[in-house]
Amino acid sequence: MLARGDLDATTRSALETVLEARLFASEELALPDNRSYRSYVELDRPYAVWNVTAAPRLSLEPKRWCFLFAGCVSYRGYFSQRRAERFGSRLAENDYDVAVGGVLAYSTLGWFADPVLSTFLALPREERVALLFHELAHQRLYLPGDTALNESFATAVEIEGMLRWLAARGDEEARERYLQSLEEERAFLDLVLGYRGRLEELYRSELPETDKLERKEELIAAMKREYLEGRGVEARYLRWFDRDLNNAHFSQVVAYHELVPEIRGLLAETGGDWRAFYERVEEWVRER
Fold first, then answer.
1. What is the pLDDT, as a whole number, of residue 152?
2. Cβ-count burial of 240 within 10 angstroms (0-12 exposed, 13-18 middle, 19+ buried)?
């Protein structure tokens, strides 16, 4: 691709950034140094896959599906949006809350050489690099059957890796933007997880099922109103709130963020030594 004389400047710059970040991931973050993200694939769709997440109407515990190598996970992926939505409709008919959403990339956990996909190449530079770190982290550590641990670990590596990458580039403006985005994300999580706790309390209560369902809708509506009042949550999360939210959406947020503070704390304990950090995480996993 880079050897092509007719390659447009935007694509060339994006691919060069990927290779720069790929090298940084191996040399500075001790992430796998392999053939992943050294080739490019153009897809004829906006997302790499569509994930289906489901949870009972009165529970925040997601439904799980079990696979040969990945173990049990709290989502089911499809290469076809139509098939994903059809499967989601069947789950909804069986009284599940369902969320179907497109995903820009996924990891084959090192079994194959994951390529750079057209679905994420056009992302803003920082988002593209963050995604690369996140997916490579799955190759570094993956525990079959524990979605929350796997996604939280990858998110923690993504965050800390981005802070290290931006500092190494000396791009103070980009670093400030990224720190601001983390603050915005924290406000979003505080709001959503706060209401998640209230929903958990409701589902454990002795109220009749019909009353629980009615109160559930009231709580979700209250959360949306609080967001619209601008209580510390930025407009970039509008799309998340501007949908028929349900228990499946809450479970997605928890999976990616539940254990992030603890895992980032382990890196701090090791003084920022990435190899020692990975060993500490593996030790922490055995102790859990």
1. 94
2. middle
Higher-confidence position of 258 and 34: 34
CA distances to 37, 64, 139, 241, 268 from 86, rounded to whole Å, are: 32, 18, 31, 23, 45
pTM listed for this prediction: 0.91
**Mean pLDDT of the chain, nearest integer:** 93
Secondary structure of the chain: what % helix, strand, coil (to 5)?
60, 10, 30
Separation of alpha carbons 6 and 9, rounded Å:
9
What is the rounded distance in angstroms from the CA atom of residue 224 to the CA atom of residue 190?
13
How large a percentage of the chain has pLDDT more than 90?
83
From residue 96, how far is each of 19, 55, 92, 195, 255 by CA, in Å?
42, 6, 5, 20, 18
3-state secondary structure of 239: helix
- DSSP 8-class letter at 237: G
Rounded distance between C-alpha atoms, residue 267 and residue 247, angstroms:
32
Rounded distance, CA 77 to CA 51, Å? 4
pLDDT tens, residue by residue, 167-191: 999 989 999 999 999 998 998 999 9
Q: Which residues pair with 65 in a beta bridge?
A: 73
H helix and E strand count, the chain: 11, 7
| Phi, psi (deg, nearest 5) at residue 233 | -110, 125
pLDDT tens figures, 241-266: 989 999 999 998 888 888 999 999 99
Spatial CA neighbour of 50 closest among 14, 86, 15: 86
